[in-house]
Amino acid sequence: LPIKNDGEKVEGPRVFVGPSAATAQLGLNESQFRDQEYLIRFFYNDIVLLGKEQGTSYAVHDFLERFCNVRWYGPGDSQMVFPKTATLVVEPREVRRRPAFAWRSMFPWTQFTMGRELYNQPSNADLDLFWRRLRVGGEAYACNHSLEGYYDRFWKQNPKCPEVFVAAHPDWFAQGYSESELEGSGGQPPQLCYSSQGLLDQV
């Protein structure tokens, strides 16, 4: 099937990926979906793969697995299995769903030597695509080291990324460290001050 943008003339069967003027004419748009929800819907000569934000990606990969028997056993094209046929025939069945869990993730064990060796040293791009194909992800969130950027934003300007500096707020960082302790942590306090109301408000 040729790939066409919105507004270009298309002859014959069509597969709509994501929201477009054509899906709006069919009465479908993103506002009708909850977060991460997606739809696979068959019309007479058309297929709609549509969801809210990353839901469209889920719809595409669900369609390929459910109706086309495509499988991904690891990152990279060498780990993808798909049947080759001159004519693709699918049995129409509507699917509308959203993941049961808002967050679906796993510790990225493939970053370690053993995991990368098992997958023949995949690139980071192949790993990212593999997780998307498995519908790993969900709502955006941050934890653990997510506050490390506060040093460049609120401690002092970093010459490597001066544009992110907002203002100096030394009271947002832990107090009472000796000069030698500060030297051991690169000249800055190794902790934030979690009793600082200014820091709490910012977070």
Task: Give structural notes.
The chain is of the alpha+beta class and 203 residues long. 26% of the residues lie in helices and 13% in strands. It is built from seven helices and eight strands; from the N terminus they run βαββαββββααβααα. The protein has a four-stranded mixed beta sheet with strand order 1-3-2-6. The protein has a two-stranded antiparallel ribbon with strand order 4-5. Strands 7-8 form a two-stranded antiparallel ribbon. The longest helix is centred in the first third of the chain and has 14 residues, at 55-68. It is elongated. The chain starts with 13 loop residues before the first strand and ends with a helix. The mean pLDDT is 88.
What's the topology here?
Blueprint lengths: L13 E4 L3 H5 L12 E5 L3 E6 L3 H14 L2 E2 L7 E2 L13 E3 L5 E2 L8 H6 L5 H10 L3 E2 L11 H6 L23 H6 L12 H6 L1
Parallel strand pairs: 1-3
Antiparallel strand pairs: 2-3, 2-6, 4-5, 7-8
